Amino acid sequence: MSTGQPWPWPQTMDALLAAPGSHRLVLENDRVRVLEVVIEPGAREPEHTHQAASVMIVDEPARIRYYQGDALLFESQAHPPSAPGVRVRWMEPEGPHSVENIDQRRYHAIRIELKQHPSHDRAALRDNASMTRLRATAPHQIPDRPPIQVVAGQHVRVGQRDTEWPAFVFITTGNGAGWVPERYLDTSSDPAEAITSYDTTELATTAGEELTLIERDDPSGWARVRNAAGSEGWVPLRTIEPVPEN
Questions:
Q1: Residue 191 sits in which domain range?
Q2: Does residue 3 lie in a domain region?
Q3: Could you give the count of Cα atoms lying within 13 Å of 39 in the half-sphere of its Cβ?
Q4: pLDDT tens, 57-104?
Q5: Cα–Cα distance between 41 and 63 in angstroms, integer?
Q6: Do 192 and 210 sit in the same domain of this protein?
Q7: Does some domain include residue 219?
Q8: Are residue 23 and residue 98 in the same domain, yes or no?
Q9: Alpha-carbon span 197 to 219, nearest angstrom
């Protein structure tokens, strides 16, 4: 998820500059930047970033490995010949990563980066403290289980549904397990495929603590917030309330 924090990586890591062999500019104006993404069979693109959120239209899918640094985050599974050829995904801003094509066919996609991303609106809201200041009405304890980050296109195993939070299902990846909103998954196949990136990090809070709203997710019943120390994470909506204006 976009956090509204300053982008920590240099412009030289932008996809067009750091990985020009796999990214080509198709169109750019004050609203969008459209990139063509091509990764040939056996190729691994250089590490790069995407600062803007985007819509990714994959019209020639292929088996890939997705890396963050030298760490392999996930490897996609082979798609059956009858699988639909076009996949549309919502992509959050991506920090340093690279993709390797391990298929015998090329990977091709169109990435529409949104310059007017909702995070810009959230940044503007943060300037109005009366609209974003919250108070914890009850403490929230984080689970002992380490958080996981799921990337759009990643295959995951879906388990049980949460009885307290029915919008969530328990997923297992190669790097851990956690609860993710079911609407962020395409469960029409097994394993399921993430269609939106998601970070399961929760934030421990104490009653009376003041927080800043980053994102409100009403369908799931949770909100992403930041505390005074700058730490961010999800908390239940039922444990927070707006701070009244003076």
A1: 149-199
A2: no
A3: 25
A4: 999 999 999 999 888 988 987 765 555 578 888 888 999 999 999 999
A5: 9
A6: no
A7: yes
A8: yes
A9: 16
Amino acid at position 149, single letter: Q
Q: What SS3 state is found at 70?
A: coil
CATH of the domain at 229: 2.30.30.40
How far apart (Å, rounded) are the C-alpha atoms in residues 43 and 198? 27
φ, ψ of residue 31 to 5 degrees: the values are: -110, -40
Both 192 and 235 in one domain: the answer is: no
| Coil, helix or strand at residue 30 | coil
Which of 201, 195, 229, 204 minimizes the C-alpha distance to 215? 201
**What pLDDT is attached to residue 153?**
85
The residue among 217, 225, 2, 226 whose CA lies nearest residue 92 is 2
Whether residue 121 lies inside any domain: the answer is: no
Amino acid at the residue 46: P
Spell out where 20-86 has E strands.
23-28, 32-39, 48-50, 54-60, 64-68, 71-75
Tokens read off for 88: 């549309």
Give dist(CA 207, CA 190) in Å, integer: 42
What does the pLDDT look like over 176-225, one tens digit per residue? 999 999 999 988 888 998 988 899 999 999 999 999 998 899 999 999 99
Which of 20-34, 73-87, 144-158 has the weakest average pLDDT?
73-87
DSSP label at residue 141 = P
DSSP class of residue 45 equals P
Distances (CA, A) of 167 to 48, 126, 170: 33, 28, 10
